[in-house]
Amino acid sequence: MAPNDSAETNGTVADGTRGSVANRRKAVRYIVPVAVAGVAAATIGLVPALASSGDPDLPEITAQELIEKIAASDTQQLSGTVKISTDLGIPSMGGLAGSLVPDGGGDRDGASADPQTKLTELASGTHTLRVAADGPDKQRVSILDQASEYSLIHNGDQVWAYDSKSNSVYHAEGEAGRDKEKAAPDGVPTTPKALAEQALKAADGTTSVTVGGTAQVAGRDAYRLVIKPEQSGSTIGSITVAVDAENGVPLKFTLQPSSGGKAAVDAGFTSVDFKKPDASSFAFTPPKGAKVTEADEAKEHGKAEAEAEKAKGDLGAFEGMNVIGEGWNSIAEIKTPGGAALPTKESGEVPAEAQQFLDALGDKVTGKFGSGTVFKTRLVNALMTDDGRVYVGAVTKDALVNAANKAG
Is 311 part of any domain? Predict the structure, then answer.
């Protein structure tokens, strides 16, 4: 029989012990729908994919003990193969990254290898990766395609990214290299352990945390930690983390939406080795003829574009954020500068292909707040009102409309 700890938490974790993972989240990061794909991709950027067979018979363990096992894990060396399947319920990004995300997806100024934009490709479909890590200063991830490969290498204060398709290289060193070491936007977890810990931050009085049996992932015995919101209105149904029974390393992360159907994110190792990777895994020399873009150059280019957009009165900046509600039902209220209406295709401020993408996600809604459009994915939804307010969170459309009505 596989162990099954069914104890729930109401401000405590499983056995009644209030741990650090049970602390209420003090801040919630939100994004508008045009960036949902990019952030979701970065969030799972280095999380490996599923390879499950059989349910091993393991000693019983409580949810609290399993959480402590994750926190105590000091494994820093591994290599393996990764498979990531993502279904956020959004249209294919295709070539829209350049329209929806600054500097995204194109070869502009040779910056197509920049990890800040390249990882948006993981927002949909199934991808195979190779990963390696040797402590906090050495990591490598390669995204494999049929005819090309994208590699991101962090070695000390050096970060290299290479896109074989465009033969372009991105390079950061010194402080820029250290800032880029996680290869993702600020605040976004990019390892299995970091992703699990991020999910566990929600384990407060609005959450049930249990042990849901055992699994075998990439030939490793594992326990299943199951995290479920107890509040209604959340788009998240459950999060399951397969935790290595021996060393506490999260091997698999599955996020199931409350709407049902296939997992929105199903990511885990297909093979894994916890031995020290060869030093050559973290060495890189730009290929002959490759165009190299330095981080400072790309940063200055992005800053110039941002200033230009702001000067045109576009979405250059929001007037801060107000968080409505708590726990899984937290909603961010953001106001555009001066209450300006959001840019549209008709105003000439949004490319036609980008508007088509957004229209495919949107539902027109009305209420006491006025009128607006709800942009939908299977996880994050956002209401953009016609008078320049944005309400965004991992909640249903009705929850967003209710929040806007109450805010007036």
Answer: no
Q: What domain range includes position 368?
A: 317-407
List, for residues 192-215, the tens digit of each pLDDT value: 566 666 667 656 678 899 999 999
Query: Which amino acid type is present at position 199?
Result: A
Report pLDDT digits (tens) over 26-58: 322 333 332 333 333 333 333 333 344 458 999
Domain boundary residue among 235, 265, 295? 295
Residue whose pair of structure tokens reads 């959340």 in the numeric block: 234
Q: Which helix (H) or strand (E) holds 267?
A: strand 265-273
In whole angstroms, give the CA distance from residue 226 to residue 315: 38
> What's the domain count of the chain?
2
The verdict on residue 260 lying in a domain is yes
* 207 CB-near residues (< 8 Å, 6+ apart): 9, 227, 228, 229, 230, 327, 328
Whether residues 216 and 324 share a domain: the answer is: no
Tokens linked to 87: 């279904």
Q: 276, 134 in Cβ contact below 8 A?
A: yes
User: How far, rounded to the nearest angstrom, does the alpha carbon of residue 392 sit from its chain's CA centroid?
Assistant: 16
Per residue in 282-296, pLDDT tens? 999 999 999 999 987
